[in-house]
Amino acid sequence: MHAVRNSLLVAVAGAVVWWTFFNEGRHPAAGVAAPEDPQQEALANRPEQWLVAGDYHVTALADYRLHARVLGVARYRYDAGAAVAPVDLALGWGQMSDWSVYGRLHISQRGRYYLYGWGPEGPPIPAGEIITHSANTHVIPADDEVARTLAHVRLHDVVWMEGQLVEVHGPGGFYWRSSLTRTDTGGGACELFR
């Protein structure tokens, strides 16, 4: 019995190593995966409001839809916004959804920021286009199904998202507001998306 169990464990371990070896580090084919710019529209009616995580009031600022490539995923559990937005997605569209472009950038996420840089060869596309065709998006799941889906989002995935850009008020004066433009950078330039 022990020999059969040990053989099974070795087979499973071998399958995991094979899967990791052949799937880690794989990159998507070159080409623009998400050609359209995000669509933002003024709210047609009075802003909707929701109560999230018990004490956080979320107010819609604009309707927002996008089709984008995932350039990075950061998950948060302990910072001030984690109860509301547990996942940040660095997203790219247009040329920034093309692996042959974003794959030449050094992309990271830290402290709720999306960071990018390039080597001595310079940026693969004009820096202004990187700014206007990518964004860090703090994602507020609207329900448990969305939260489960977000748990499976990975680097290089292509996502279609529809909801609202929002602002959040919470305990102790907590305040977080979405950017409403794709041309800004730095603190406050991220999209806060429900």
Topology:
Blueprint: H1 2-23, E1 39-42, E2 49-52, E3 56-75, E4 87-92, H2 99-102, E5 106-110, E6 113-117, H3 127-132, E7 134-139, H4 144-150, E8 158-170, E9 174-177, E10 191-193
How does this structure look, described?
The chain is α+β, with helices and mostly antiparallel strands and 194 residues long. It is 20% helix and 36% strand. The chain contains four helices and ten strands; from the N terminus they run αββββαββαβαβββ. The longest helix has 22 residues. The protein is globular, with a radius of gyration of 20 Å. It starts with a helix and ends with a strand.
Provide the descriptors you would attach to this structure in a database record:
two-stranded antiparallel sheet; 10 strands; 4 helices; globular; disordered N terminus
Query: What's the rounded overall pLDDT mean?
Result: 88
Rounded radius of gyration (Å):
20 Å
Portion in strands: 35-45%
N-to-C SSE string, H for helix and E for strand:
HEEEEHEEHEHEEE
Number of strands: 10
Number of helical segments?
Answer: 4
Quick take:
With 194 residues, the chain is an alpha+beta fold. 20% of the residues lie in helices and 36% in strands.
